[in-house]
Write a structure and sequence with these properties.
two-stranded parallel ribbon; 2 strands; mainly alpha; 5 helices
């Protein structure tokens, strides 16, 4: 797991690039990885939120780095999440929620967790996106006398 403290900025948001920031940054494409091992289906008894979370991992870019033991931890986290969400009489236990957050953090499921671990997922850029031309601004400036 990465360092504690404030979430680092993404590499393109940083101003200084000449300072060594520690371990090398890993960049990968977001979205479902090409090859995944055969994964067990979610438990039908899980809470729907836990099921959605578990299934979302299959579509996440960091899943390309998961080993079978990581998928086992993900199943454990989904089971724990389901139990936390189903505590209707007493409400969720703070210690269980903290433990669940820790397990989810070890799987790099949030942007902050990935940045702390020096991993960035790059979204695919739209194919037809072009920058606007600045020539109209130049003509307005000429007209205004600037």
């Amino acid at each position: 797991m990465g360092a504690h403290g404030p979430i680092p900025k993404r590499s393109e948001e940083r101003r200084r690039r000449n300072k060594d920031d520690g371990p090398e940054l890993i960049q990968s494409l977001s979205g479902a990885p090409g090859e995944l091992p055969d994964l067990p289906d979610p438990n039908p008894l899980w809470d729907p939120i836990a099921t959605d979370w578990y299934l979302s991992l299959r579509e996440s870019g960091q899943a390309a780095f998961y080993e079978p033991s990581d998928w086992a931890v993900a199943r454990y986290a989904a089971e724990l999440m389901s139990r936390v969400l189903d505590c209707s009489e007493r409400g969720p236990n703070g210690q269980l929620v903290a433990a669940l957050n820790s397990v989810m953090s070890s799987l790099l499921t949030t942007e902050g967790d990935r940045r702390r671990a020096r991993m960035e997922l790059e979204r695919k850029k739209p194919a037809g996106a072009k920058l606007a031309s600045v020539s109209p601004l130049d003509s307005y400036r000429d007209i205004a006398g600037g």
